[in-house]
Amino acid sequence: MAGNLKLQVTPFKKDTYVNVEGKLEATRFYIIKDGQVQISRISEVIEENTSDILFPGDFFGVVSCMSNHASIETAKALKELALICVYREQFDLMIQKHSAIAMKIITSFSHKLRYFDSAITRLSFKENVEEDPKNLFKIGKYYLEKKQSSHSFYAFKKFIQYCPNDPGTQEAKQLMLQLQPQIKDGGATNAQQGFNRQYEDNEIVFLEHEPGNELYIIQKGKIKITKIVDNNEVMLAMLKPGDIFGEMAILENKPRSATALSSGDSVMLAVNKANFEAMVQKNPQLGTRLITLLSERIWKAYRQLANILITNPLGRLFDTLLTIVEENRVQIVHNASFSFDFGPDELVKMVGLAADEGNVLVQELFKNTKVKLQDNKIIVKDLQELVKQVEFYKKMDALDRKRQKTGNKS
Q1: Which of 123, 260, 262, 403 could serve as 199's disulfide partner, Cβ 3.0–4.6 Å?
Q2: Sheet harboring 371-374: ordered strands across?
Q3: Per CATH, which fold does 133-306 belong to?
Q4: How far apart are CA 313 and CA 310, in angstroms?
Q5: CA–CA distance, 194 with 268 (Å, rounded to integer)
Q6: How far apart are CA 21 and CA 42, in angstroms?
Q7: What number is the average pLDDT over the span 158-171?
Q8: What is the mean pLDDT of residues 326-335?
Q9: pLDDT band at 187 (very low <50, low <70, confident <90, very high)
Q10: Mean pLDDT throughout 198-210?
Q11: Which DSSP symbol is given to 204?
């Protein structure tokens, strides 16, 4: 992609819709040169700590462009606009010539993803624990109860390192002495130098609440991302070679929001704060890969939040199926079918429903003639039926919100 970077500037009149939520085939995103843009979403994502008004220098449409999913936001011109259009194929060259723009996008995405993760935890598990190294003591106690000695030892060791004056330090030291005989190599987990990192099965890469200064690119193996919620370890994701994780800690200078554990032997490339921006400028493909990854994760997180905000749990089942179809980038047309690689039990767990409630709802789900069960796998015979059902339940929620607002004013 050698050569000059030629970016098109496109004018839009006031009150024009530049982008509409749900629009497919977003091949470009926009940087505002002149004017103002209002951003809105169908699903009201509560308490988001960002303005919905964008100004010159701000950008929008990156998530749908780089993830190749339908747009998750609507953009309307509040004033006459001059927008710089950046096409997907121009991204590497733009980063090479204007690394500051890439860093602004990455940092903004990191903030947004941390908010989404926090909101999902709050709404799903009814709690939102602020990341704090002091909580490493509780993590150590949790793993101690679960008889995972090496994990417990690691947590206490990091707790003492980052909170040396905390009242719990003495207890942590005593517990470490008791655990010491069970720990191989003196608990030297993660004491690795250079860019390459190697981990054995079930070895800690980092713990939630632990300060961090590196992001990781998986070269070999898999990484399990978990979080302890209500005294249970919940698996959030299983990452594979090529995936990037840990970026939020180095971009926002905050403790880790989740734990990363090696699943099988793994090899990773570590990039630290000091060389991150230089590496993005020198290797624009790294920046493109990271922004593409963050775009995909933001799309998934927004869809997950939108799902949680659907009041009717049956609507959430339909929406979960639709999200998986869209995640696989399957074209949704009349009479197009899709076979899911899981059954009712897995679907109920994905939505976070209790087994008893889930079983009742699954029976309701299969009353729809377009949805059937074969060999304990869910099959949807017409994907447009999923869209129809999800739109119905979201419309019902919108009407309820409107009635509530009207009632509050009267």
Answers
A1: 262
A2: 338-339, 377-380, 371-374
A3: Jelly Rolls (2.60.120)
A4: 7
A5: 11
A6: 8
A7: 96
A8: 89
A9: very low
A10: 94
A11: E
